Description:
Elements: H1 14-18, H2 31-41, H3 55-74, H4 90-104, H5 122-133, H6 141-154, E1 165-166, E2 171-172, H7 184-192, H8 217-231, H9 265-268, H10 274-283, H11 289-297, H12 306-315, H13 321-353, H14 365-375, H15 381-387, H16 398-418, E3 425-426, H17 434-453, E4 459-465, E5 481-483, E6 487-488, E7 491-494, E8 499-502, E9 510-511, E10 515-521, H18 529-533, E11 535-540, E12 552-557
Parallel strand pairs: 3-5
Antiparallel strand pairs: 1-2, 4-10, 5-10, 6-9, 7-8, 11-12
Amino acid sequence: RLWLSAQPHPNLPIRLLQNSIKVVVDTPVMMRDHMVRSMQWVEPETLKISTRPEWPAVLHNLFMVHGALRLRARFGRGGWNRPGDMTFGNNELQEGLQLVLDEFSDTTSTDMPGTPGKGISWTTLRYMLTEVIYGSYVSDENDQLTLSAMVDYWMGPNAMKKEFEVPRLKHKIPAAFFANYIRYNSLVQALEQIPNFFLDVPEACNMHSFTETLLGDDQYIFTRLNSVYDIMPSSPTLSHVVSPRPPTPYSGPPLTTISATSSLPLVVERGVFATQTYAALRNRKEQELYELTSTLLTKVPRTWGKEYIADRIKKLGGATAFNVFIQREVEALMRLITEVRRSLNAVKAAVDTMESLPLGDHLSQDYLTVADDLYHYRTPELWCRLGGDTVPPPTWNPAQWLADLQNRHAHFEKLLSQGREKFPAYWPGAFFQPRALFGLLKSESVKNFTDKNGYVEPLVFQTEITARDKDHLRDPPTEGMFVFGLYLWGCTWEKTTSELLDSPPKSGPSALPVIHVTCVPQSEKLTDPVKAGETYQCQCYISRMSSEDPVLTLDVRHDGIT
């Protein structure tokens, strides 16, 4: 007999799989099942290794940490910046279990067997879990900070008390873990009594519940049931006659929603109703492409010629670094608007002249895809691809998408009219490369600092969240720049008191007021240790689903918030 162990891999030999008895060992996805399975991995004699009263609670919290890290990865980029690094398995759990066994064992030395255990080094325990066992897989700095905070939250003396409770979740360590006489079966039964899906919520992994923290399990289940229905043979008892099968696989956001969150990007990936969406298409009002394209064409902003752009740049001071950057951004915006108008006109003309020939004989493949997207009333993929990372998500309908394009056009029109010296505030979301905007600010600040002081020192961004709205600004600041259009996920910002507050459950982002961005020497930023401890370095990304590096780091005060 041969016992062979292997990690999941698509290239495992087929002959080996056919001639072997396969046993799959994996950590359950659901939190309650994971807790029960983890406790079943522990031998009953393990509970007798330590006489410390917090020993059973340590096991519970270790299992909780492992499950919370995996649960957070299920939320995708809503939970981690790089969720692919955080899919921990049974190996990490066994290593963590061995670590706490060595730390809590009553025998501390082989030279003096039977000597009572020493004091527990919680700092060492947290360091090994954060930096070695789990942290060795983490490649993102912010993910490492989040991992450290979660381990610190669960692995400490306060978290081992009977009255310790997770805020908003109202979950406590079961009373069986604090009994005078610990029984293995009692611990397993206590974990099995946790209600189903009670721990499969964002609060269980130290997150706030908002629109991005959705697992889409209902979408997954219903679409798989729909798939079973689609492959069943036709019969008089099934409704295939009323709702015919789709001629081709359906892609894109569903038209028949399971819940109010079915159109969110994370949930859409779990699948769509093929048959039901096709039935909805047949039963709804026929979409007239000619009428739709005519309406959308009236919402497309006007374009500017290269001569007009060059003339405006010349009047604003010529080919300075900032003006060259603005010129490139405006030209990229004009190319996007031109392509949007060209595709709409092509679809409109093809529909208007179509007689006996199908639509595909009048249009290219790209424009045929645009026509298909418009017929389903979703933003064409071609527009989103040309728009870059700063455009709205494809789940927006075309009218909303064009409204955002109009706002970007108006922002650059005002900038070309007023110039940098009179432009009050910038909207980073209007730029194709917002990171370059702040790079120009830093390069100019370095040059001014060097000319003034005669030496070079590293400069960093310093931000201040003001209490002003963009409509109240008339002039730019004397130093740095004002920016607006940034949003905060997971909490809200009270403008009058400059405080962070909890946002209502399952709510979207909250808009921040105008932010003043400046560059200061690194040695002068947050020199007060008290103020530095009350300031959180909040990462600002291009979009909530962006996989790129942060554009800016905001200094957010969190006085009195733990």
